[in-house]
Amino acid sequence: MRPVTNASMHNSSEEESELRRGPWTLEEDTLLIHYITCHGEGRWNLLAKCAGLKRTGKSCRLRWLNYLKPDIKRGNLTPQEQILILELHSKWGNRWSKIAQHLPGRTDNEIKNYWRTRVQKQARQLKIDSNSKKFLEALRHFWMPRLLEKMEQNSPSSSESFTSASTAEVNNPAPFAELTSEPSKFLANCNDFLNENSSLSICSSDSVRMSQFPGNSAHPSSPIPNDCYYVDSTSFEMEGFNQPNMSAGCHVAELDWSNDYVAENLWNMDDLWQFSSK
DNA sequence: AAGAGGTGCAACCGCCGCGTC
DNA sequence: TGACGCGGCGGTTGCACCTCT
């Protein structure tokens, strides 16, 4: 663990040399929470001084936003959240804070860590650039259907409402009806997204049609047709996943979907998606 | 049981844009 | 108008913990 003070650094002023760094203590957390509860957030440097914290304003802000804020969600990302991250990242790239705005309770830091530790790791193992179109296609054709399948499996009504796609079927998935275990949350997330993207349109009172939901707009040359997603309070269909079966000749440029190595790896990555609880 | 290597994540760093003086 | 301070953001680091051998 790093020393508590940065006295060894090249700060000239005595005050600066007393600044603490490294992990926050319970006492510091308490001070910060108490101060913000009484006075609100913002003006972080002043806040740090007034609260009696020997921390930089930046450090206080980071600690509050990423850890102490009451509405922070802890624990693994849900499949719904993971799908949103993948889709939003395909549209916006590493705009973590923007992506985080669409995942209530999740921080940009958490999403960034998720992407770097899980998604990029798999991209490396597959020897695919995580920013490449190839990787995006992998996400859309293999991993997202897998996530949707997982969402369905987690759904309490799944056994009645949905004939789960087998692994072999996921490349040409049946309509994803009643998929989500947390439909209201997922809908809320999608609607938040829709509200900020005028290119997306509501197509009925009961269902939400998301034309060009993010992926392809970022990659206009993608051979995938503009995806059309339906989000419904009782049914949830992602037409974008109704792609031609790979074995039937999926026209995906650059990536050979029949490549056993790629397929094997893609289907052995449940760990990536946090399917199993820790 | 213990050491090595891998993983996850909290925290820090550096840069940039904006507001103020 | 340029210097300065601050907040916000994305990239990176370092360490505790976990898994493997």
UniProtKB/TrEMBL annotation:
Compositional bias annotation for Polar residues: 1-11
Subcellular location(s) of the protein: Nucleus
Highest taxon above the source species: Eukaryota
PROSITE patterns according to UniProt: HTH_MYB, MYB_LIKE
GO molecular function terms noted in the UniProt entry: DNA-binding transcription factor activity; sequence-specific DNA binding
Region: Disordered, residue numbers: 1-21
Protein name: Uncharacterized protein
